[in-house]
């Protein structure tokens, strides 16, 4: 399933900046950054539960927020892109040299 993860982490102090880095690093492990605080993640149901649990442990529930948009399996028909697009298709082969 394709899940869009968006977050807003309060960075007014060094603890917030540290949380922001941790959230971003975790999201990079699961998906592709498509904007500063937006990730497209192709996840199994188990990975979806796992990333939600890990993110919940990182954030400050009183100041930070994370949203999960489950786009399902046929997500390609639900996404429109405008302008520059430097992302990859997670369903296609990726060549690494």
UniProtKB/TrEMBL annotation:
<keyword id="KW-0051">Antiviral defense</keyword>
<dbReference type="GO" id="GO:0046872">
    <property type="term" value="F:metal ion binding"/>
</dbReference>
<keyword id="KW-0479">Metal-binding</keyword>
<dbReference type="Pfam" id="PF09827">
    <property type="entry name" value="CRISPR_Cas2"/>
</dbReference>
<comment type="subunit">
    <text>Homodimer, forms a heterotetramer with a Cas1 homodimer.</text>
</comment>
<dbReference type="GO" id="GO:0051607">
    <property type="term" value="P:defense response to virus"/>
</dbReference>
<protein>
    <recommendedName>
        <fullName>CRISPR-associated endoribonuclease Cas2</fullName>
        <ecNumber>3.1.-.-</ecNumber>
    </recommendedName>
</protein>
<dbReference type="InterPro" id="IPR019199">
    <property type="entry name" value="Virulence_VapD/CRISPR_Cas2"/>
</dbReference>
<keyword id="KW-0378">Hydrolase</keyword>
<keyword id="KW-0460">Magnesium</keyword>
<keyword id="KW-0255">Endonuclease</keyword>
<keyword id="KW-0540">Nuclease</keyword>
<dbReference type="GO" id="GO:0004521">
    <property type="term" value="F:RNA endonuclease activity"/>
</dbReference>
<dbReference type="GO" id="GO:0016787">
    <property type="term" value="F:hydrolase activity"/>
</dbReference>
<feature type="binding site">
    <location>
        <position position="8"/>
    </location>
    <ligand>
        <name>Mg(2+)</name>
    </ligand>
</feature>
<dbReference type="InterPro" id="IPR021127">
    <property type="entry name" value="CRISPR_associated_Cas2"/>
</dbReference>
<comment type="function">
    <text>CRISPR (clustered regularly interspaced short palindromic repeat), is an adaptive immune system that provides protection against mobile genetic elements (viruses, transposable elements and conjugative plasmids). CRISPR clusters contain sequences complementary to antecedent mobile elements and target invading nucleic acids. CRISPR clusters are transcribed and processed into CRISPR RNA (crRNA). Functions as a ssRNA-specific endoribonuclease. Involved in the integration of spacer DNA into the CRISPR cassette.</text>
</comment>
<comment type="similarity">
    <text>Belongs to the CRISPR-associated endoribonuclease Cas2 protein family.</text>
</comment>
<dbReference type="GO" id="GO:0043571">
    <property type="term" value="P:maintenance of CRISPR repeat elements"/>
</dbReference>
């Amino acid at each position: 399933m394709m899940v869009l993860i968006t977050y807003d982490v309060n960075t007014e102090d060094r603890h917030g900046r540290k949380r922001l880095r941790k959230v971003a690093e975790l999201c990079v492990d699961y998906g592709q950054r498509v904007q500063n605080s937006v990730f497209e993640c192709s996840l199994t149901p188990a990975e979806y539960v796992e990333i939600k649990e890990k993110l919940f442990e990182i954030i400050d529930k009183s100041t930070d927020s994370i949203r999960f948009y489950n786009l399902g399996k046929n997500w390609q028909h639900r996404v429109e892109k405008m302008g520059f697009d430097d992302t990859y298709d997670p369903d296609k082969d990726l060549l690494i040299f």
